[in-house]
Design brief:
about 280 residues, alpha/beta, Helicase, Ruva Protein, domain 3, Rossmann fold, 7-stranded mixed sheet, 7 strands, about 10% strand
């Protein structure tokens, strides 16, 4: 997905939020915004938003001297999700279609987003996603392709939602390679976060080699690309992964909640809609 002019104010908003999370120093926060202002003129609109997001967060790190502004918030979101884990596990045990419910729960976890939606309400969103019919619903195709899949790659997104990803992986009952960011970016999941969520007990954890808030294939490691290219099912969580992979002709299923009007428009849905999208739908 390309960058739209509407994305530019969002870059400033995210930079301000991240800088304030990093330091309590108005002068340094202003310096971050000044540098982002200079960066704007260099933004190529044919690149994906996460490619610019990578430069925005590098600027925040360089100016503030803080590598992981959201470390504490990530830990709290993981703890909050883990506290819900027993209840959600019981819910899956009672479900008529546990896989369908697990997919919905994985999407519900996508609300934990300090970049696009810092004012999320987790418990409320879980109920909403479970009850709301997806605007794009390729669940049946997902279920059928999962049954045949032998090599599954799962692209993680935010740290707290990895607990919900764990529930889906446990429900799928197949070997999975779970992919994390190379280094801290917004509140996206790193290897440390995935381990905190217990994902190392249910999946092999691999870094994408990329420090953007998405999967920019040109910046990924050879190890990750080997997994990506041989996978017969790729589960892509969240908006950042959609923005970077929406044009790829690979067996990808995008699981997300549309939190941004630009992404909602690109998908042809409304803000707040739930999406289960097959990148290669059957004709």
């Amino acid at each position: 997905m390309k960058t739209y002019l509407d994305c530019i104010p969002c870059f400033f908003k995210q930079a301000l939020f991240a800088a304030r999370a990093a330091v309590d120093d108005e002068a340094r926060i202003k310096a971050v915004l000044d540098k982002i202002g200079m960066l704007v003129s260099e933004i190529p609109l044919n690149s994906s938003p996460p490619e610019t997001g990578r430069e925005v967060y590098r600027t925040v790190r360089e100016v503030t001297g803080v590598d992981d502004p959201f470390r504490d918030l990530k830990a709290k979101s993981i703890d909050k999700a883990l506290a819900l884990y027993p209840t959600l596990k019981h819910l899956l045990g009672e479900a008529k279609d546990p896989l369908k419910t697990a997919v919905r729960l994985a999407i519900a976890g996508n609300v934990i987003d300090f970049g696009a939606n810092p004012d999320f309400q987790l418990e409320q969103d879980i109920q909403e996603v479970l009850q709301k019919e997806p605007a794009i619903n390729h669940y049946q195709a997902f279920k059928e392709k999962l049954a045949r899949a032998q090599d599954i790659v799962y692209l993680g997104d935010n740290a707290g939602e990895t607990v919900f990803d764990r529930l889906l992986i446990e429900t799928m009952g197949k070997p999975v390679t779970f992919v994390v960011r190379e280094s801290p970016i917004i509140n996206d999941a790193t290897e440390e976060d995935a381990i905190s969520s217990g994902l190392d007990n249910v999946a092999a954890i691999v870094s994408s080699g990329c420090d953007a808030p998405g999967t920019v294939l040109g910046g990924c490691s050879e190890l990750f690309l080997a997994h990506f290219n041989k996978a017969d099912l790729i589960i892509s969580k969240g908006q950042g992964n959609y923005e970077t992979l929406s044009q790829e002709k690979r067996p990808v299923f995008f699981l997300l909640k549309a939190k941004c009007p630009v992404i909602a428009r690109d998908l042809g849905v409304k803000v707040g809609d739930v999406v289960i999208k097959d990148a290669l739908p059957s004709k």
